[in-house]
Design brief:
The complex is a heterotrimer of chains A (165), B (351) and C (753). Chain A has 165 residues and is an alpha+beta fold. Chain A folds into two domains: 77 residues, Ubiquitin-like (UB roll), CATH 3.10.20.30; 77 residues, DNA polymerase, domain 1. Helix content of chain A is 36%, strand content 15%. In chain A, helix 2 packs across helix 5. The radius of gyration of chain A is 16 Å and the shape is globular. Chain B has 351 residues and is an alpha+beta fold. Among the domains of chain B are: 48 residues, Uridine Diphospho-n-acetylenolpyruvylglucosamine Reductase, domain 2 (2-Layer Sandwich); 105 residues, Enolase-like, domain 1, CATH 3.30.390. Chain B contains 13 helices and 13 strands. In chain B, strand 11 and strand 12 form a beta hairpin. Chain C is an alpha+beta fold and 753 residues long. Chain C has three domains: 152 residues, 2-Layer Sandwich (Aldehyde Oxidoreductase, domain 4), CATH 3.30.365.10; 193 residues, Aldehyde oxidase/xanthine dehydrogenase, molybdopterin binding domain (Aldehyde Oxidoreductase, domain 4, 2-Layer Sandwich), CATH 3.30.365.10; 238 residues, 2-Layer Sandwich (Aldehyde Oxidoreductase, domain 4), CATH 3.30.365. Chain C has a seven-stranded mixed sheet, with helices on both faces. The chains are: A alpha+beta (165), B alpha+beta (351), C alpha+beta (753). Chains A and C meet through helix 1, helix 2, helix 3, helix 4 and helix 5 of A and helix 1, helix 3 and helix 14 of C. Strand 13 of chain B pairs antiparallel with strand 18 of chain C, so a sheet runs across the interface.
Chain lengths: 165, 351, 753
């Protein structure tokens, strides 16, 4: 039995015929839509490498069935830069060396973007550390990650102020 | 993952009918169920996806002052609701101390209540586990069991319930609304989960097809908001299940404890309400001695089930600390590290 | 040819031009955009998915597999089993060289450890292959599992680590202990640990006739290629391995393991490209781990606090079928001067996958025990831990008596202690609290790691358009080879980094050796440096022998390569650009090769090590026993720093591993079944962001003329040493409770607080 679902992926509508309801959002992205920026580190919601935004919220795509997300709006690491212009979080990760091997990085960046939208951590390093704890980094780039988020958050705060001024 | 039939019902009634059949399971966010399916611990034939049902994702204040939370409200949405966090601070703190931000965004209120144990032998399908497979035996009893139950366990099962959320909920007399084959009914959260006895495979009082549609926090729980905390000891600072946790809530009038609520997490197959300890506290001044007495009472019946005697002592100390923190007053904002002993970071060091 | 004496006085190699610059990662944009291609991201046309089924018993044999059930599952294409598989050209049990480890590639039904591969299911979809593997429902004949450090008769292994003697001594330890004024004896235990790189081991294998294309993360392209060639009986030039990015390695991707071989076999079996990715739990078995240890230290000191004896014995384990021994006790060879030193190892065999190098193998395990014991001895002598270490500062390498090629450890102690504020530490434990009433403790540890060199080759070219090229099959597992080696390459050919094409990460390039032993930058860097020197020499030869060149006749004076020009060393007004030289010679490019290798004479003469000092602050809840590291300062002297930005990150990472060693990670084995009960990232706990405090790294200036041409010592592993002990010692200082079993668990503190 096949199921048709329709998703918006990085702004583009994707109609997908699923021959198998077992396909997770992560495996759909990686193995069927060939969007391999999103990584599989554990496949059990224990590492955060597969973090994407679904309807604006960061989730572990390994623990989400694609079929259940019919109609969802999905944003992945491939969808946040505008051409050569990096998203501020991406740029800040490079500037602060927020990664080494880079495997957890797409998940870290999507998580950071999701976290900034949640607006719970602000520019408090301790809250950022807590709110980014769902993304493991075995290389140990945590200090750079926090610094990158702080810089991106400062930039976002500044542009918000400018907008409201 | 076993092949399954995917069903997306349009109404609660359709859902109940579809899930009442043998081999069916409800799918909400799936943060626990999909993991269990990937590990072959759960192998349902049919998934009944309730995430598209209308009306289960709302929170509303009822005429009697209680708060009704739809079963599909996400853990994060609930915890981040400023009004909710102010009214039920220990619940919000518990929610935010659980799992990760990603998981909290997906996980639902209803699903959280029905989380399965993290016992490694339950997850390891090559091990014997009475909970996973009735009457097969328990390899945890003589195995790696430093994190297992110290209250309410049996020779059949020493697993614990892993939820943080449930701990303050059970302290606050939360009620679960259930839709089943015979219509709607209500069960006190305290009565939802069962202790293992000889049948650990029966984890709750739910019958096939039963769907949790809402959770209710009674009006009386609001009166405890000024002195309510959740405290959780774990093996890393975040993203870890509790070794032991406690929710404490007090109503203090004229410097005396007019009412106390206390529950423990990580110690039993269910969130553990410590009523005897609550009774001890009633009418006493909120002092260290009183809290010590309550802690002793809360753990009177505790017994190690393996290499976990330390959990009894740890639970006593957590009770004392949680009560002390509650007595000191609910902080204006949930700490940066929710429920952590390191919640208040201090700069100054004194030699 | 002009004399360019580059090895002893690299005059053209200007510290501060490319080398030494804190460049951001050159692969950074790819990585932040999700465009860096890791092995499992490949998807050649027609590719099928392979999933391993693994053993749930640790010892015995498989008696049946329900292959029919797996085959019945829609989408399953084939099931590879011991009875149905392509034949290998050689027996995988044969160790053709010391860097070959035995692997399980379905050669028999025998089970020697839990999570050993027992079959591979190949299917059109990942979902079908995964369920197919579950449907095999293996039956076993189970034999008792050997588990733990007391599993059986112990024996002295022939060698530990890579070829080190199992026992070593200098002086008479028993006499030293007898003469001591103060003595301590303490036993420390460290658990099995798993590398757990974020990227699971993965392979995409495609056969084209007898040619083989492989995408696979590897820390050793050429070793892997050679192993594949001998296993499948095909010539080296028929195999192409791509490994442009590793999602972490830490030693587990250094040598060819069984699972990628199974991927290649599966592709051969079905005649289509196959992707095989390990599930996280499958990484706890066939791809190596750090073995557990039990270490007994006996230390004696005289009345002044000088060591009279240091006796370090380590018990470890190896598998029942192969040999790798964690050289834990060797950590005591290099750090502290003592009248007598003895190190020894013994081992037992257990039903485990063979242990392997894991970030600082031996140094990490040995360091936490040694640094704890030194701290205990300092306390026994009533001395400040830093003062005690300075009192026993080794001016020569204690075990050999050789001078150090360089050693700026004293400066590390001074600068680290100053930055940390160590002078304000109370000598007595359990004296410090913070405003919230938490116990505060300060601890320190000395870091050390040998400065190793392997062998590598590089190819350099200079082109008529004024650009350069450098090619080397180097590996970037996160340490930053794409950037740091490109910086070395740019200086080697005297060009700006943006004018040099740097190629790495594939097996068709010159052999860069293995990315391990913290030696990759030094080894590959030396090859690059030498290839650059050779190509510049050729270019200089063209110019100085050509009457039309302003450099004509400069052969004896020598030339310097800088900014795309050759410049007369004794007269900088005379120079010529690379394009001018090549154009006149009618050449499109010149190329040359160079090698990097250890210098046996220098190694004979000097002991070569990086050093460091790590200071840690922890807070401990006085009733609940939960521990949190709140501050760490590490000062490291590791020779020349090629890129301070990346080096800082590497050292941070190592310090976090040290913290994790002391407080978090441990694989827990069920003693009855031999299965690891926490083979996942939820319960095998590595630090999360909230565990990691503000970290501070100081790189202490150190010039080493002996280690290699570039003076590089390597920083990949040293960060974990010293740090683990510093955290453990801080926990003691906070609580007064000495925990000697790692990681430190709440229950062990709780009962004694």
């Amino acid at each position: 039995m096949t199921h048709s679902i329709s998703l918006t992926v990085n702004g583009a509508r994707r109609d997908v015929v699923l021959d198998d309801p077992r396909v997770t959002l992560l495996d759909l992205l990686r193995e069927r839509l060939h969007l391999t920026g999103t990584k599989k580190g554990c496949d059990r919601g224990q590492c955060g490498a597969c973090t994407i935004l679904v309807d604006g919220k960061r989730i572990n795509s390994c623990l989400a069935l694609a079929i259940s997300h019919d109609g969802a709006d999905i944003l992945t690491i491939e969808g946040i830069a505008r051409g050569d212009q990096l998203h501020p979080v991406q740029a800040a990760f490079i500037a602060h060396d927020g990664f080494q091997c880079g495997f957890c990085t797409p998940g870290q960046i999507m998580s950071a973007i999701g976290m900034m939208q949640e607006a719970q951590a602000g520019n408090d390093p301790e809250r950022i550390r807590e709110c980014m704890s769902g993304n493991l980094c075995r290389c140990g780039a945590y200090a750079g990650i926090v610094d990158a988020v702080l810089e991106a958050q400062a930039g976002a705060d500044e542009s918000n102020q400018r907008r409201s001024a | 993952m076993k092949q399954f039939e995917y069903v997306r019902p349009a109404t609660v009634a359709e859902a109940v009918a579809a899930a009442a059949q043998p081999g069916a399971a409800y799918l909400a966010a799936g943060t626990n169920l999909l993991d269990l399916m990937k590990c072959n611990v759960s192998r349902p034939d049919r998934l009944v996806d309730v995430t598209h049902l209308d009306g289960l994702d709302r929170t509303e204040r009822l005429a009697d002052g209680s708060l009704r939370i739809g079963a599909l409200v996400s853990n994060a949405d609930l915890a981040h609701d400023a009004e909710f966090a102010k009214t039920f601070p220990a619940v919000a703190e518990a929610l935010l101390s659980g799992a990760s931000a990603q998981l909290r965004n997906a996980a639902t209120v209803g699903g959280n209540l029905l989380q399965r144990t993290r016992c490694a032998y339950f997850y390891d399908t090559a091990s014997r586990c009475n909970k996973r497979e009735a009457a097969s035996g328990c390899d945890a009893r003589d195995g790696v069991n430093r994190s297992h139950a110290v209250l309410g366990w049996s020779e059949s099962c020493i697993a614990t319930h892993p939820s943080d959320f449930c701990v303050p909920l059970v302290a606050l007399d939360a009620v679960v609304e259930i839709e089943g084959k015979n219509g709607r009914r209500e069960v006190a959260l305290e009565a939802l989960h069962r202790l293992p006895g000889d049948t650990p495979e029966h984890e709750s009082v739910l019958e096939p097809g039963d769907l949790i549609v809402a959770l209710r926090l009674p009006a009386a729980a609001r009166g405890l908001a000024a002195h309510a905390r959740y405290l959780k000891v774990r093996e890393r600072t975040s993203y870890a299940f509790a070794i032991v946790s406690a929710a404490a809530a007090l109503r203090i009038e004229n410097d005396k404890i007019a009412e106390a609520r206390l529950a423990l997490g990580g110690v039993a197959a269910k969130p553990w309400r410590a009523r005897a300890a609550e009774d001890v506290l009633k009418g006493l001044a909120p002092t260290a001695d009183a809290f010590q007495e309550a802690a002793s009472r809360a753990l009177t019946d505790a017994m190690p089930s393996g290499d976990n005697a330390y959990k009894i002592e740890l639970a006593r100390r957590i009770v004392v600390r949680a009560l002390s923190l509650a007595a000191a007053g609910t902080p204006a904002r949930i700490p940066a590290l929710p429920a952590s002993p390191f919640a208040s970071i201090s700069g100054a060091i004194h030699a | 040819m002009p004399e360019l004496n580059l090895t002893s006085a690299p005059a053209h190699l200007r510290h501060g031009s490319n080398i030494g610059q804190p460049l951001t990662r050159r692969d950074g944009v790819l990585k932040v955009k999700g465009q860096a291609t890791y092995a499992a991201d490949n998807h050649p046309p027609g590719m099928l998915f392979a999933v391993m089924a693994v053993s749930s018993i640790a010892h015995g044999r498989v008696t049946s597999l329900d292959v029919a059930a797996a085959r019945r599952h829609p989408g399953v294409v084939d099931v590879m089993t011991p009875d149905h598989k392509p034949q290998l050209a050689i027996d995988p049990e044969i160790k053709t060289n010391p860097f070959v480890f035995r692997m399980e590639v379905l050669q028999s039904n025998e089970i020697r450890y839990a999570n050993q591969p027992i079959a591979v299911v190949i299917a059109e979809t990942l979902e079908a292959a995964t369920e197919g593997a579950a449907l095999l429902a293996p039956r076993y004949e189970t034999l008792p599992a050997l588990v733990g450090l007391d599993a059986g008769e112990s024996y002295v292994p022939p060698v530990v680590g890579v070829g080190n003697p199992a026992e070593n001594h200098r002086g008479d330890v028993e006499a030293g202990l007898a003469a001591a004024d103060k003595r301590i004896e303490a036993t420390y235990e460290t658990p099995p640990q798993y590398h757990n790189a974020m990227e699971p081991h993965a392979i995409v294998a495609s056969w084209d006739g007898d040619g083989l294309q492989i995408d696979m993360p590897t820390q050793g392209l050429m070793l892997s290629l050679a192993r594949v060639a001998e296993l499948f009986g095909i010539p080296h030039d028929k195999i192409h391995i791509r490994s442009p990015f590793l999602g972490g390695g830490f030693g587990s991707k250094g040598l060819m393991a069984g699972p990628p071989v199974l991927g290649i076999m599966a592709a051969k079996l079905v005649g289509k490209p196959v992707k095989l990715v390990l599930r996280r739990e499958q990484m706890y078995g066939p791809v190596g781990h750090r073995a557990p240890t039990r270490q007994r230290l006996r230390i004696g000191a005289d009345a002044d606090g000088r060591l009279t004896a240091l006796d370090h014995h380590a018990r470890t384990v190896s598998s029942t079928f192969d040999d790798f021994y964690e050289p834990a006790a060797d950590a005591s060879h290099t750090l502290y001067a003592s009248t007598a030193i003895r190190t020894s190892h013994d081992a037992v065999r257990v039903n485990t996958g063979t242990p392997l190098f894991m970030r600082a193998p031996g140094e990490a395990t040995g360091s936490i025990a040694l640094e704890s014991a030194i701290d205990e001895m300092a306390w026994a002598c009533g001395m400040d831990p830093l003062a005690f270490r300075l009192k026993n500062y080794a001016e020569v390498e204690p075990i050999t008596g050789k001078p150090f090629s360089s050693k700026a450890l004293r400066a590390c102690y001074e600068q680290g202690a100053a930055r940390f504020g160590w002078a304000k530490r109370s000598l007595q434990p359990r004296q410090m609290r913070d405003d919230a009433g938490l116990l505060v403790g300060w601890g320190m540890g000395t870091a050390t790691f040998p400065a190793l060199m392997f062998q590598a080759e590089a190819r350099a070219a200079i082109r008529r358009d004024g650009t350069g090229a450098m090619e080397i099959g180097a590996h970037d597992m996160g340490q930053g080879a794409w950037t740091a080696l490109a910086q070395i390459a740019a200086d080697a050919v005297g060009l700006d980094i943006d004018r040099v094409t740097f190629k790495a990460g594939t097996s068709d390039l010159p052999d860069a050796g293995i990315a391990g032993g913290s030696a990759h930058t030094a080894t590959a860097g030396a090859a690059i440096h030498s290839a650059g020197a050779a190509v510049i020499a050729k270019l200089a030869d063209l110019a100085t022998n050509d009457e039309r060149s302003p450099l004509y006749g400069a052969g004896n004076a020598g030339v310097i390569a800088r900014d795309g020009r050759l410049i007369r060393r004794d007269d900088e007004s005379r120079s010529e650009s690379y394009p001018e030289i090549l154009a006149r010679a009618g050449l499109v490019e010149v190329e040359a090769r160079g090698t990097g290798a250890p210098n046996p004479a220098a190694m004979e003469e000097y002991a070569m090590h990086a050093h460091g000092a790590v200071f840690a602050e922890v807070k401990v809840d006085p009733e609940l026993g939960q521990v949190r590291v709140t501050r760490m300062v590490g000062a490291f002297a590791a020779g020349r720093i090629v890129n301070p930005h990346l080096v800082k990150s590497q050292l941070f990472g190592g310090m976090i591993w040290g913290m994790s060693f002391a407080l978090h990670e441990e694989a827990i084995t069920d003693r009855r079944s031999g299965r690891i009960m926490n083979a996942n990232l939820g319960e095998y706990q590595i630090p999360v962001n909230a565990d990691v405090p503000p970290l501070d790294v100081i790189t202490v200036e150190e010039r080493d003329p002996h280690v290699n041409a570039l003076g590089i010592k390597g920083v990949g592993e040293i960060g974990i040493t010293g740090s683990a002990g510093a955290v453990a010692n801080a926990v003691w200082h906070a609580t007064g409770v000495r925990v000697r079993r790692f990681p430190i668990r709440i229950e062990e503190l709780l009962t004694q607080l």
